[in-house]
Design a protein that fits this description.
Elements: E1 4-8, H1 11-23, H2 32-39, E2 44-49, E3 52-62, E4 66-74, H3 83-94, E5 99-105, H4 109-114, E6 118-128, E7 142-145, H5 151-159, H6 167-175, E8 179-186, E9 189-197, E10 203-210, H7 213-224, E11 232-237, H8 241-249, E12 253-262, E13 274-276
Parallel strand pairs: 4-5, 10-11
Antiparallel strand pairs: 1-2, 2-3, 3-4, 5-12, 6-11, 6-12, 7-8, 8-9, 9-10, 10-13
Helix pairs in contact: 2-6, 7-8
Length: about 280
């Protein structure tokens, strides 16, 4: 591959990656790239042919033992020429020795299995304007601006649902412009957290954590109030049956399917409280 090289992504590249992901129909958040860079500044790779970007991948490290693959895209006009597999090999090499996760679109899942990944659950994106009817959060639960809480409490709560601590990423993810983070609190304890962010399509909610379905539904309804037209999308794991029931009960419709896959046993996290994943690109 004369003239082909792999480099770290620049700020301009990060915006290009968002555009490419948009063209794939993934509807990434408009400002996600800023939080992505905080998660792992060296975790985004771009393949260039004669200096021009033609393919990309993210291979983000968390802590000492976990990594996540995302943004695996080759430009349509260069597919089948080997650029994508070169990026794949570079990304996986960067995560060598770690448990690696990804969210695979249906048409690529067999290829991921050939690379050693196994399905842990199916993630279904539900979209629409949530119905306003229904009870609020459980009695005694108050929904507040997450920024009003000590950040250490938020970080500890997030750690229950993710394999490694990701404090710097979480701080950016919950506070960037164009997004709203709400927490459900009972007697000083966090019992739910949701973040809605602006996208070119439906505003995406993620993460969505809750102690129970009533609190999850209340968070979705409140977060939708911060979305243009009230339209939201939530990536719901089928490993928590209550999550799909909440989405359906709110009148949201399934629109996009992926599989959460890992190179080893799925990490032990609190799946019963996971109502929506943070991001299909970063886990």
């Amino acid at each position: 591959m004369t003239g082909f090289e792999i480099t770290g992504a620049s700020a301009a590249d990060m915006e290009l990656l968002r555009i490419w992901a948009e063209r794939e129909g993934w509807n990434p958040g408009v400002g996600d790239r800023f939080a992505f860079a905080v998660a792992d500044p060296d975790g985004f790779l771009v393949g260039r042919r004669d200096g021009e970007p033609v393919a990309c991948i993210s291979a983000v490290r968390y802590g000492t033992g976990f990594g996540f693959i995302g943004f695996y895209i080759a430009r349509p006009d260069v597919r089948g020429q080997g650029y994508g597999i070169r990026l794949w090999e570079a990304g996986m090499d960067r995560l060598r020795g770690r448990l690696v996760g990804l969210d695979g679109v249906v048409e690529q899942q067999d290829n991921y299995r050939k690379s050693g990944f196994r399905s842990a659950w199916t993630t279904m994106r539900y979209e629409g304007v949530p119905r306003a009817v229904g009870a609020g959060a459980d009695d005694g639960v108050e929904i507040v601006d997450a920024a009003s809480l000590p950040f250490g409490l938020l970080a500890a709560y997030d750690r229950r649902f993710f394999p490694e601590a990701r404090d710097a990423f979480l701080a950016a993810w919950t506070s960037l412009p164009g997004r709203t983070a709400l927490a459900a609190v009972r007697d000083g304890r966090i019992e739910g957290l949701g973040v809605v962010r602006a996208c070119s399509g439906a505003s995406r909610i993620g993460p969505l954590y809750a102690a129970g379905p009533e609190t999850a539904a209340a968070l979705v309804r409140r977060l939708a109030g911060h979305a243009p037209g009230g339209e939201v999308a939530v990536d719901v794991p089928d490993v928590n049956p209550a999550a799909a029931a909440v989405a359906a009960g709110l009148g949201l419709a399934p629109s996009f399917e992926t599989a959460r896959m890992y190179t080893g046993p799925a990490p032990e996290v609190e799946l019963s409280g996971l109502y929506g994943v943070t991001s299909l690109e970063l886990g």
